[in-house]
Amino acid sequence: MYITKNILTLFSKFFKYFVWKFHTFNHFTAIIKNDELS
User: Fold this and answer.
1) pTM for this structure?
2) Angle 25-15-34 (CA atoms, 0-180°, nearest 5)?
3) 36, pLDDT greater than 80
4) Could you write out the DSSP letters of every residue in 1-38?
């Protein structure tokens, strides 16, 4: 049970990290696209 809990905690940390990275990347891409349009 303890090991399973640790794996779940690690998984949620990685998931949050990847979601944050993905949103940051999308935001950055949108800024570049807006820069090209203007």
Assistant:
1) 0.52
2) 15
3) no
4) -HHHHHHHHHHHHHHHHHHHHHHHHHHHHHHHHHHHH-
